[in-house]
User: What shape does this take?
Amino acid sequence: MSTTKKSSAKRWTAGTSAVLAAMMLVVGCSSQEAETSDPVNTPAATEQNKPEAEAGNETEQFVKLSWYMPKPIDNMKDQEAVEAEANKIIKEQLNAELHLNLIDNAGWEDKMKLISAAGEPYDIVFTTFASNRINDNVQKGAFLPLDELLEKYGQNILAKVDPRAWKAVTYKGKIMAIPAQTPYSPAGAHVFKKDMVEKYGFDYKSVKSIQDLEPFLAEIKQNEPDMIPLLATANGTASGITLYDYTTITPGISYSEKDGSIVKILDVPQNKENYKTIHEFYQKGYIAKDAAIKTDYLAEAKSGKYAVMRDSGGYTEDGSKSTATYGFPTVETLSGYPTISTNSMTSAASAISATSKNPERAMMLLNLIWGDKYLLNTLAYGVEGKNYTFKSGTAQDDDPTIEATSGSEQTWAIWHNWLGPLWDQWDSNWNSTAALQAMKANNDNGQASGILGFIFNSEPVKNEIAQVSAIQKESTPILTTGSMTDFEQYYTELQQRMVDAGMDKILAEAQKQFDAWKAENS
Assistant: This one.
């Protein structure tokens, strides 16, 4: 694919003249942990400061680069072919070779902890506010500060990351990860099987809360014996449960956007009311009896046996995204937008390991992915003819439309924001260009949280957080499916278990850090 390689070489330098525009956030942290850095003065903010992107003599020695991430789908079989295609470009541009280490989700967290504890050399890793946590890795010195590397080799990255997002990954004045382009305020939506809505004449647009679903669920339960009214699983709650005016700080602790207070989320009356409704739905047979042991929400949704689901990762007014994802006609109605938070801005990020033997080349690789659409989409979609086909255009057009394999035939997938530049995704059955534009517009226009930039330092209460997290892991499947025997008893006992595990100490620490951050940023 020589023509593609030639266009890749052009695109490698094309991004270097773009203006700095980076992801979203406003670093704020506790006084113990992070200091802000002005995004206007981040590396490469001006044309004068901007070095050449070409690596020059620094790529004379051939190197092998490793990248760790959780396995995006279970049925990954084409890694060798995908890496071979991607490495044609990487070898030509960087004199390097990439190997992806895809770890089963069940062992992901433990694997990365072991690698870190052993000081094992590797180059790049997937990290988020919740998975292989940025905060935890920074505390133990597992990640490399990226400021100088970005200034010297990261021009495409600096040109595309939303400037606000750098503050979400800045600790004590140092950038510790690259925040991905990703929906920062992803809309929640109720999704309905279109044929069921039409059959029963249900005004789905009138649904404003989880409670408003009751009439439709009751009708499905009574008249459709082969259908389950509402989809909920152990790790996937129904839409409408989330409290959009509360922003999570740490497990069990949230910030109220209404009154600016720090609260225990289980103590919020509306939260309890929503879970009580789910329990009532479960008792009435609207939710599968074995819902608490179902763990693959997407597979359940694709089965077509549920009348009401949640959005498939992005709301579209015409239902097109859920229709494409679930494989049958759907309609949707909006349930709400969360505020843009530090957590949402770090829902996908890439870091370079402190043990990397080739951090410069690792940054060059990330920068190349942010600048070369063909390389990005090859790593994401796979190999043409094997994992996807062109519906219109070609890779050389830079703006094709493709059809990626799905279901049991899908043997390769890496979500674009796990790689970095989501908005450079080719138009496809994963996301249409229109859907991507809507997500980006929502980011640009989204409401920022009152604690945007606040980064909670978990170190003082890490033992309590570990205990609380263990209880949450056990209780979440029961809460999200409503499958407890006695709701009031279960909920009250859960609140007390959280207190016994140290929730009040976590709350006090969060309040202390928040007060310090607020004083510094007032």
User: Anything to note?
Assistant: The radius of gyration is 23 Å. The mean pLDDT is 87. The first strand starts at residue 28 and ends at 29.
